[in-house]
Write a structure and sequence with these properties.
Blueprint (H helix, E strand, L loop, with lengths): L2 H22 L4 H28 L12 H36 L3 E5 L5 E4 L1 H7 L11 H4 L3 H9 L6 E3 L9 E8 L5 E8 L1 H37 L8 H29 L7 E3 L1 H16 L4 E6 L3 E5 L1 H17 L6 E9 L2 E8 L21 H6 L6 H11 L3 E7 L3 E7 L5 E3 H6 L6 H7 L1
Parallel strand pairs: 7-9
Antiparallel strand pairs: 1-2, 1-5, 3-4, 4-5, 6-8, 8-13, 9-10, 10-12, 11-12
Helix pairs in contact: 1-2, 1-3, 7-8, 8-12, 9-10, 10-12
This protein binds adenosine-5'-diphosphate.
Amino acid sequence: MRRGSVYELGWIVALALAAVVLIAMGLGWAEAVLLMLCLLLARHAWHLVRLARLIRSQHRLVPPFPKGIWGDIYRAIGQYQQRGRKGRKRQVRFFRRFREAANSVPDALVVLDKNRRIEWANPAAQVLMDLAWPRDEGKALFEVFEHPELADYISAGEYARPLELAPAHNRSIMLSIRVAPFGERKKQRLVVGRDITKIFHLNLIRRDFVANASHELRTPLTVITGFLETLADSAQTPSNHRRPLTLMQHQAERMRSIIEDLLTLSRLEMDEHASDIAPVDVPNELEQIVADAIALSGGQHRFSLDIDSDLLLLGKDSELRSAFSNLLFNAVKHTPPDSHIQLVWAHTPSGPIFLVEDDGPGIEREHIPRLTERFYRVDEARSRASGGTGLGLAIVKHVLSRHDARLAVASEPGQGSTFTCHFPLGSALSAAQIEHHAQAWAPSALGSAG
Ligand code: ADP
């Protein structure tokens, strides 16, 4: 039995004895018991009121505690208070450490409330986004950090890809903005701004270098090709020179293809999104692409087509033509004669798809994620022999990204390959819609797509 309970039992026994004494002294037994009970109740009521007052005034309950059951209650509440205090101290320490850590992050961190008002920001936000906490607390983000693209980006709610921008207060830096929704119903947002100036400039240097080098190589190559052609056509060329000449012509042609693809990639890298977009008559484009693929195959492949002739796409015709032909020509180049190639252009509930499926040799799983890297080939020798530049799928990836589309590759060795371009729902157009909106697009737009 606990000490408090023993003490309490002692009290009750003492009161019972006092009641017996009172009865013996001549008081009625009912009155004597009532009197003792009242005394007992009064004692409990006094402790109850005292405890309620102490708790209300947030008084720390520390020893010495009263004896008996009330002492136990005081002690238990005191221990509970102590645990709470320790927990709060731990929380404060953790919060302080967390804030120190957040303050030492070199990236700008800004916490927005559900109305996109600034709740907190770290010191890096001042340098990178010209936004200081607590000075700007409660202000709308766009009021302090003005940027038209940022407002659209945050409102769109699609944060899979970061937004790259040069802040208005310091055009010499480049920021990559990421947004992470959190909190109740993901209404709050953490905005992270990373300084990518160095990597951005390195990328620019690389892009310009590739573009300039390719451009510079073009002219000498044209001269070499011209002379090779003249020599090949000349009757005075010794017959033992004919084979090396043909080989040289072949290699010069390969070099020209690589240079053209590199220049195409450089052009695609200039802007994140395709400009001058207009309705593209994809079925019409595919007619020409399929004719070219049949010519490339030399009649050695079997083709089947499933083309929605009413489905058009909002995009850039030259880029789409390049992406679609790369995928179809790959199916021809990388599959043996008599392979079956299926081409699909169709509308699906998630948007238009362009699909090329073949029953060729397929691709081992480990190569698939790397196929869109520049110059990545599964089989170097075979790709070169088939006239590939190793840049085709890199071009496809860039074109699709500029159209907010994505490439999916499914392949198993010995089971063939399927390359699917998934376009966003909003990019699909029907011929009827084109007629309806004829005014909105330049009359030349449709013509150039055809
Ligand atoms: P390439 O100019 O070599 O075709 P790509 O970038 O277009 O370069 O393709 C990269 C590699 O992907 C190719 O070298 C080839 O190994 C593989 N590949 C592409 N398409 C197919 C396909 N339909 N079947 C098998 N392998 C393919």
